[in-house]
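User: Can you model how S-adenosylmethionine sits in this protein?
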Amino acid sequence: MSVNFDRVAPFYDRLAQWVFGDSIRASQAYFLKEIRQGSRVLILGGGTGNILLDLDQLARKMQVTYLESSGEMLRLSREKLPFKFLSVRFIQGTEKNIPSGEFDVVITAFFLDVFDESKLPEIMETLYDHLANGGIWLQTDFTRTRVPWQRLLVKGMYLFFRVFTNLPGKKLLDFSWRFSQFNLTMKAYHHFFSNMIMTVVYEKDAGR
Ligand SMILES: C[S@@+](CC[C@H](N)C(=O)[O-])C[C@H]1O[C@@H](n2cnc3c(N)ncnc32)[C@H](O)[C@@H]1O
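Assistant: Here's the modeled complex, given as structure tokens:
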């Protein structure tokens, strides 16, 4: 059985707000301002679609390809229509269903943490290949810390999502190290929620 967020979709935002306050939404919105007018944007696992509202707030025209594997999450995302500046192509699917072509921006927010070590490299490789040279990858996720209450919270989250969504990931992986294996330059980063959440702007170097 593969991962399925349908069951948690109706209360996902409320739960995130209850546990993390505004940090989940604010962290992934933080670097959206780096996206230029006219960009082709790829969003993977966008959840209930709040990120589309935050993107539209920038008042810059963009073509967004929005991939969600959960039908329920996608339905909630579509409810955010209409947008003033975004043109959005909603697709129910996974990284395997990314339309051919390159994107100026890839956005992964609390998405890579879904996967385990066996699947993550392949997914990151696929997304990297779809990113144009000079394009940016906005990555937001939990980070590994040594703080006991944070480690406990992460453990609890993985347990919760394994039960309710059949999440394959079992522990938080070292995303920064994995990004460093690609031809990407870290341009900026910012922490949220007592350093437990990190949002990063990576730029794809020309030549690969
Ligand atoms: C932890 S949630 C994060 C949602 C949202 N990005 C946020 O920050 O609130 C992960 C999302 O990824 C979706 N998802 C899981 N595996 C996927 C895949 N292979 N391709 C596309 N979406 C996927 C889930 O349905 C879920 O909505």
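A couple of observations from the model: Residues 3, 5, 24, 28, 44-47, 67-70, 73, 94-95, 109-111, 114 surround S-adenosylmethionine (CB under 6 Å). Strands lie at 40-44, 62-68, 86-92, 103-109, 131-142, 184-192, 197-204.
User: Helpful, thanks.
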